[in-house]
Amino acid sequence: MGTKLRLGTRGSALAMAQSQTVADLVTEVTGQPVELVEITTAGDRSTAPVQQLGVGVFVSALRDALLAKEIDFAVHSYKDLPTAPADGLAIAAVPERADPRDALVARDGLTLAELPAGAVIGTGALRRIAQIAALGMPVTTVPIRGNVDTRLRKVADGELDAVVLARAGLARLGRAGEVTEILDPMLMLPAPAQGALAVECRSADTDLVEALAALDHRATRAAVTAERAFLATLEAGCSAPVAALAEVTEDDEIYLRGAVISVDGRFALRLSRTGTLADAEEIGRALAADLLEDGAENVLGSAE
Ligand SMILES: NCc1[nH]cc(CCC(=O)O)c1CC(=O)O
């Protein structure tokens, strides 16, 4: 056995679960033991809405610890990473993705369509709020924060009729059995890179970059590349909620769907593109250009 690798992780149950999964994989492929090092982020200390804190808040403390060499690598939920690359760091592996879809956990086993008029759904994500609003149902959404356990408890306690969460997160916590409906991407397109993990280390740590590459899953890497190129291109031209899902077939074809939806749900643009795996990045950029050409930048304007 070589030296112990230090894997930096947030302390939440979800972060610990996904870090432990990757730690086990790393030990399996490299033979090196991995030690989990808990890092507290500003996002964990604050109770402010995530939108106010900014997406990078959970990530920057881990990146600081990497650059300060306090840890050797970190595991992020890929969808929480800012699109700008981090100086001096590399995403050495994108392991095989879990189910990328969103899931509904509702009282009494209800599906979305079965929720009665006046039902209250907990979700703080603008992308989810916008897509629920676009369905035109007589339901309302309320912001919700806290860990997965806290969110599920609000349904069990009767405080909320339902919550929408990433199925991958529920599965990693062993709570997928509580899902009452997996939401079809035709209704609820997930966040770019949802369900995927990013394994990050210092780019100068070439031995580790190479070792971690053994965990990389080619189809997942391509799907995430297409979805994130789509997001990055749209971010420059439009700040409405963005959703995307790329599916890769056995013969290396990519089917990328993307959407931009106004928060009030009144305007939704949805398009798709297909292509080959090697062109993942280009497909993402081209799909974003299609949406911008259709007026994606006006979608947010209409909600303001
Ligand atoms: N926004 C928070 C977040 N970041 C990653 C996950 C778990 C699922 C994943 O890895 O995509 C979640 C919870 C959720 O959206 O329900």
UniProtKB/TrEMBL annotation:
<dbReference type="InterPro" id="IPR022417">
    <property type="entry name" value="Porphobilin_deaminase_N"/>
</dbReference>
<feature type="domain" description="Porphobilinogen deaminase C-terminal">
    <location>
        <begin position="223"/>
        <end position="292"/>
    </location>
</feature>
<dbReference type="InterPro" id="IPR022418">
    <property type="entry name" value="Porphobilinogen_deaminase_C"/>
</dbReference>
<protein>
    <recommendedName>
        <fullName>Porphobilinogen deaminase</fullName>
        <ecNumber>2.5.1.61</ecNumber>
    </recommendedName>
</protein>
<feature type="modified residue" description="S-(dipyrrolylmethanemethyl)cysteine">
    <location>
        <position position="238"/>
    </location>
</feature>
<comment type="similarity">
    <text>Belongs to the HMBS family.</text>
</comment>
<keyword id="KW-0808">Transferase</keyword>
<dbReference type="InterPro" id="IPR000860">
    <property type="entry name" value="HemC"/>
</dbReference>
<dbReference type="GO" id="GO:0006782">
    <property type="term" value="P:protoporphyrinogen IX biosynthetic process"/>
</dbReference>
<dbReference type="InterPro" id="IPR022419">
    <property type="entry name" value="Porphobilin_deaminase_cofac_BS"/>
</dbReference>
<comment type="subunit">
    <text>Monomer.</text>
</comment>
<dbReference type="Pfam" id="PF01379">
    <property type="entry name" value="Porphobil_deam"/>
</dbReference>
<comment type="pathway">
    <text>Porphyrin-containing compound metabolism; protoporphyrin-IX biosynthesis; coproporphyrinogen-III from 5-aminolevulinate: step 2/4.</text>
</comment>
<dbReference type="Pfam" id="PF03900">
    <property type="entry name" value="Porphobil_deamC"/>
</dbReference>
<feature type="domain" description="Porphobilinogen deaminase N-terminal">
    <location>
        <begin position="5"/>
        <end position="208"/>
    </location>
</feature>
<dbReference type="GO" id="GO:0004418">
    <property type="term" value="F:hydroxymethylbilane synthase activity"/>
</dbReference>
<dbReference type="InterPro" id="IPR036803">
    <property type="entry name" value="Porphobilinogen_deaminase_C_sf"/>
</dbReference>
<dbReference type="GO" id="GO:0005737">
    <property type="term" value="C:cytoplasm"/>
</dbReference>
<comment type="function">
    <text>Tetrapolymerization of the monopyrrole PBG into the hydroxymethylbilane pre-uroporphyrinogen in several discrete steps.</text>
</comment>
<keyword id="KW-0627">Porphyrin biosynthesis</keyword>
